[in-house]
Amino acid sequence: MSNDIKTTAEAIEAAALPRSHEVHADPDATPVEVPDGVAKKPVAEKSPAEWAYERLIMYIQNFEKQLDGDHEVAMGFTGGDAGVMRIEGMGFFDPDIVTFYGSDNHGIKTQLVQHVSQLNVLLRALPKPAEQPEAARIGFRLADDLERS
Questions:
Q1: Which residues pair with 110 in a beta bridge?
Q2: What is the mean pLDDT of the chain?
Q3: How far is the C-alpha of 3 from the C-alpha of 45, rounded, in Å?
Q4: Which of 60, 70, 117, 146 could be disulfide-bonded to 37 (CB atoms 3.0-4.6 Å)?
C-alpha cells in the first residue's frame, strides 16, 4: 500500500491516461509501449473503436519489432477456412467498428470489418512476398499516424 498523497487533479489524470502492463517468460521480451500520441486524448473521451484501434497499433508495432527481415505481420482467422490476412492497413469508424485491410495467402484483396465487442486478433508472422525487397512494417506507419493526429 502506498502512502502517496495525490491531488484530485492528479488522481483524475492518472485514471484517464492509458496504461499497459505485461509479464513474459522471456526476460528479453519487449513490452508494449504507449506512444505519446495515444496519451494526448483521455481514454474517457475516446470511442470504443478509437481506443481499440490505438491499442491494436501498439500490439502490431511491438509484434513487428520481434520479426526478422523476411517476415511481415498478418492476422489469422478463426472458423471456416479463411486462413490469414497480411495486414496492409487499419482504421476505425466511430463509435464501434475497427477495420483491417490487406491480402490473403493468394494475394487477393481482403478487408475485415469488426465490431469492437467481437474483436479478437491473432497476430502471425507471414513470409514477405519473394518479389518484395524488404518486409513491410505497417505498425510503424500506423504509429506515426497516431503521433501526427
A1: 102
A2: 83
A3: 30
A4: 146
